[in-house]
């Protein structure tokens, strides 16, 4: 059935040909959703409440946790609406807003990981000036810069979506709105919207990755110059959580890109599953990584959950 170009909504899609299993699929998604809310919410609470965590490293971690919460709370509700209630219809305004926040927060996450790499670089390569360089004001400015860069870079794409006429079936291939999904339904010249995202990815996400890589080369060079083996291990250990988060984020980015570019003949369910992994795996893993690898976070969690017992 073909809809006219004045239609004001799109139709979201769950898992094609698996509609009968939607309720079962929603159970692990719901578990992951609440785990992400609990994990990242706990990190934010600890960093706000524990004065021992009022340091630049943990402020950046709070930014990462807030970004992960934003990504999850932007995508999962519409997914659960489709899987549970078969609520597939979404208005244009809501769809474009969701796409804006999804893509913006993805770039924010890359920027926060870069800021965290800068933090580790200063802490290890210039430790005597760490507190004077990364003041609270500067940390706030870095956070605002990361957010502004992402928000402004995505805005031209989403603004143009409002201008396009749409024809065809108005059916999207995911249970949430993505820019690349929406423009396939536009009955207009979409050259800019096809080329501009490539520029954004290369100018920001790829550049962030390269800067992080070179910063760790300099960090490794500095660490190898430390005479004491114990001090070397201690310095490297402060970077391990961040390195794990980087790997989780960029491996999923590469995996999603690989599937989209080279998996054109793969079943649609593979593309859909990979998109869920991209949006849910990093927010799920980041709190786990920092809880396991960072003693201060471990201590804070122990204090938090032992507090009621101590009061009793």
TrEMBL record:
Principal subcellular localisation of the protein: membrane
Subcellular localization, as worded in the UniProt entry: Cell membrane; Membrane
Domain of life: Eukaryota
Family matches, as PROSITE patterns: G_PROTEIN_RECEP_F1_1, G_PROTEIN_RECEP_F1_2
Domain G-protein coupled receptors family 1 profile: 39-290
Keywords associated with the record: Cell membrane, G-protein coupled receptor, Membrane, Olfaction, Receptor, Sensory transduction, Transducer, Transmembrane, Transmembrane helix
Keyword Cell membrane: yes
Membrane topology annotation: Multi-pass membrane protein
Residues that span the membrane, as ranges: 24-46, 58-80, 100-118, 139-159, 195-219, 240-262, 268-289
A matching Pfam family: 7tm_4
Xref: SUPFAM superfamilies: Family A G protein-coupled receptor-like
Function: Putative odorant or sperm cell receptor.
Similarity remark: Belongs to the G-protein coupled receptor 1 family.
Protein name: Olfactory receptor
Encoding gene, per UniProt annotation: LOC101389384
């Amino acid at each position: 059935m073909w809809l006219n170009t004045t239609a004001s909504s799109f139709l979201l899609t769950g898992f094609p040909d698996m509609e009968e299993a939607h309720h079962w699929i929603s159970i692990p998604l719901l578990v992951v959703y609440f785990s992400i809310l609990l994990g990242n919410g706990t990190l934010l609470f600890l960093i706000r409440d524990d004065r021992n965590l009022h340091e630049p490293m943990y402020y950046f971690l709070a930014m990462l946790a807030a970004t992960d919460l934003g990504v999850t709370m932007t995508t999962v509700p519409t997914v659960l609406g489709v899987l549970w209630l078969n609520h597939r219809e979404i208005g244009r305004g809501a769809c474009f807003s969701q796409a804006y926040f999804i893509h913006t927060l993805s770039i924010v996450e890359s920027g926060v990981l870069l800021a965290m790499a800068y933090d580790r670089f200063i802490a290890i390569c210039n430790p005597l000036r760490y507190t004077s360089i990364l003041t609270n004001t500067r940390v706030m400015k870095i956070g605002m810069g990361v957010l502004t860069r992402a928000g402004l870079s995505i805005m031209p794409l989403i603004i143009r979506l409002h201008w396009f006429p749409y024809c065809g079936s108005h059916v999207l291939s995911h249970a949430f709105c993505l820019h690349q999904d929406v423009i396939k339904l536009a009955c207009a010249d979409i050259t800019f919207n096809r080329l501009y995202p490539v520029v954004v990815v290369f100018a920001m996400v790829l550049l962030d990755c390269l800067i992080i890589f070179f910063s760790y080369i300099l960090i490794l060079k500095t660490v190898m110059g430390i005479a004491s083996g114990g001090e070397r291990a201690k310095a490297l250990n402060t970077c391990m959580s961040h390195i794990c988060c980087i790997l989780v984020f960029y491996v999923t980015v590469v995996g999603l890109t690989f599937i989209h570019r080279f998996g054109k003949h793969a079943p649609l369910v593979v593309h859909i599953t990979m998109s869920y992994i991209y949006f849910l795996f990093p927010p799920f893993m980041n709190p786990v990584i920092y809880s396991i690898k960072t003693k201060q976070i471990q201590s804070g969690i122990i204090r938090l959950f032992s507090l009621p017992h101590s009061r009793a």
